[in-house]
Design a protein that fits this description.
- About 5% of the residues are buried.
- The chain has three helices and two strands; from the N terminus they run αβααβ.
- Helix 2 packs antiparallel against helix 3.
- It is α+β, with helices and mostly antiparallel strands.
């Protein structure tokens, strides 16, 4: 029933927050979680790049290439960070909320 009510909502004025991650994790758990998210985002941009180039071999896909590079750098930083936390026996608190808004 609640789903039907959501479908009737005027989405032009709706915002949606999704609480994706919240809690304390071991360094290994946090590493697994963050690495999985980063891999999904990297693959998303790789598929976008491939799709854009499929019809046009001359398409440079600069935005996807730059975002992929940013995410690969973040992946390397995260790996070093989690390794250090693991060596120090630290627990990590992670929070991540996705905010969705309608854009014209």
């Amino acid at each position: 029933m609640e789903t039907l009510e959501l479908l009737k909502t005027d989405i032009t004025s709706a915002n949606q927050d999704i609480n994706l991650i919240e809690g304390a994790f071991t360094a290994s758990e946090a590493s697994d979680l963050i690495n999985a998210l980063l891999k999904v985002k990297i693959n998303f941009h790789k598929l976008n790049r491939l799709s854009a180039r499929e019809g046009n071999q001359n398409e440079s896909c600069d935005s996807d290439n730059s975002r992929i590079n940013e995410l690969i750098e973040a992946e390397a930083f995260a790996k070093a960070f989690f390794t250090q936390a693991r060596l120090q026996g630290k627990k990590l608190k992670l929070t991540s909320t996705i905010n969705i808004t309608i854009e014209d």
